[in-house]
Amino acid sequence: MHIHILGICGTFMGGLAALAREAGHRVTGCDANVYPPMSDQLRALGIELIEGWDVQQLALKPDLYVIGNVVSRGNALMEAILDAGLPYTSGPQWLAEHVLQGRHVLAVAGTHGKTTTTSMLAWILENNERRPGFLVGGVPQNFEVSARLGEGQPFVIEADEYDTAFFDKRSKFVHYRPRTAVLNNLEFDHADIFADLAAIETQFHHLLRTVPASGRVIVNAREESLARVLERGCWSDVQRFGVRGDVPGFRARGEPHSFDVLKSGVQVGRVEWALLGEHNQLNALAAIAAAEHVGVAPADAARALAGFANVKRRLELRGEVRGIKVYDDFAHHPTAMRTTIDGLRRRIGEQRILAVFEPRSNTMKLGAMKAQLPWALEEADLAFCHSGGLGWNAGEALAPLGDRAVVGDSIDALVQRVVQAARSGDHVLCMSNGSFGGIHDKLLAALAR
User: Fold this and answer.
1) Does 252 lie in the same domain as 206?
2) Quick one: 232 and 167 in the same domain?
3) Is 117 annotated as a binding residue?
4) Does the annotation place 46 within a ligand binding site?
5) 113 is in an annotated binding site
6) I need a surface site. Which of 123, 315, 341, 447 has the fewest CB within 10 A?
7) What pLDDT does 355 receive?
8) Tens-digit pLDDT profile for residues 350-359
9) What does the pLDDT look like over 156-167, one tens digit per residue?
10) Burial of 303 (0-12, 13-18, 19+ CB in 10 A)
11) What number is the average pLDDT over the span 164-182?
12) Is 205 annotated as a binding residue?
């Protein structure tokens, strides 16, 4: 089968393309913005990439068009497909029918930590000879690819609550029909498609409706929103993590980089690794609990995590110039920004953190979370915000930070301000869910000059 993927360079659609290619299909695709790391990965697989939405792509005559949720009505190529009555489907639907059918699907859902937890779980299963398939919304450094079919029964997938396609407004994850569902956390996000937190809770409730009675739901015990989701109905076994007191379930005892894993008060494993932050400690507990459902003992899962190399763009050191370190991180929600900064603070102590970020997600561009930004950035010594293209005043939103906040309307202006402020021993943390205009390399080059 020849499939042509519209929106191929998104992390999900790029992973789907890799799976289809591995399965023996001919794969081509197009997107408006083709940039690494996904573009490099796809080209290495021999997948032809086309820039833009030119209707001449109809001449490829694929058997099926697979449509990413970046595509909307009015897109020239999509309109031509509709006019011609050509066959098309969504990415999640294609995945469900051609890859996930008959597998033990382990789906990792939540506002934060999906990519990291999915990668941890895939690595635990790999390290314990389960040969899993996986699709991750990033590039796990243990595998160096974002997706593979695998040879074993388990398939681990990052389960996004964002909508499926312009013609299917259900969350992507309702297509996956998991036997093991991880609910990592749940906050308001995606203000462009959800009116409020209750609307997202409804989608998580729909996910639980797809888990069989013989399945298992792994739930963060600290989240009131997830407790409300469970109250609406759950027909499967429930295993909680992050529990406190005498509540049954998984909890950690110790620091995030070195801790015992306890299940209902009994030590069942120990994790020693290089990752930082309580959020990663909770991610680890979720992955260990999920792996147990496919027969991996918690002690074996915990040992496997010692070799976990994390995901690209998760507090990834991009370079050091004149004693100044520059990091790249995917954090784009205020809570994720705060936990990332906190994790770095725990590592470096009193050394300065210069947080450089762009409000790039649709939710952030709409200004739905601008009031949370001072809270997200309070542990940073200085904060630099790229304000280009925003419909709200970033300077006003960051006013509570006083002279610790700097706003720039272009990448070059922001680079100049960061370079002026940086000094030896500083840690420059760049946070965005996009390429951020190549700011990491621009900063390193400017610092070198």
Assistant:
1) yes
2) yes
3) no
4) no
5) yes
6) 447
7) 94
8) 999 999 998 8
9) 999 999 899 999
10) middle
11) 96
12) no
Residue 316: is it exposed, middle or buried by C-beta count within 10 angstroms (0-12/13-18/19+)? middle
Give the Cα separation of 86 and 89 in Å (integer): 10
Tokens of 326: 């520059």
The CATH number given to whatever domain includes residue 9 is 3.40.50.720
What's the Cα-to-Cα distance from 279 to each of 109, 203, 340, 378, rounded to whole Å? 15, 23, 9, 18
Is 340 annotated to bind a ligand? Reply is no
Q: Is the pTM of this model over 0.70?
A: yes
Domain with 54 in it:
2-90
The answer on 359 and 293 residing in a single domain is no
427 vs 415: CA distance, rounded Å: 14
Q: How confident is the model at residue 141 (pLDDT cuts 50, 70, 90)?
A: confident
Q: How many domains is the chain partitioned into structurally?
A: 3
Looking at the predicted structure, is the pLDDT value of residue 327 above 70? yes
pLDDT > 90? residue 310: no
% the chain with pLDDT above 70: 98
Q: Which amino acid is at 407?
A: V
The terminus-to-terminus CA distance of the chain in angstroms comes to 52
52: annotated binding-site residue?
Answer: no
Residues 300 and 323 in one domain: no
pLDDT, tens digit, for every residue of 279-293? 899 999 999 999 999
List alpha helices for 23-128, DSSP H. Answer: 38-44, 76-84, 91-95, 114-127
Q: Are 298 and 121 in contact (CB under 8 A)?
A: no
- Asked whether residue 261 falls in the same domain as residue 321, the answer is no
Q: Is 111 annotated as a binding residue?
A: yes
In degrees, to the nearest 5, what angle opens at C-alpha 254 toward C-alphas 251 and 258? 105
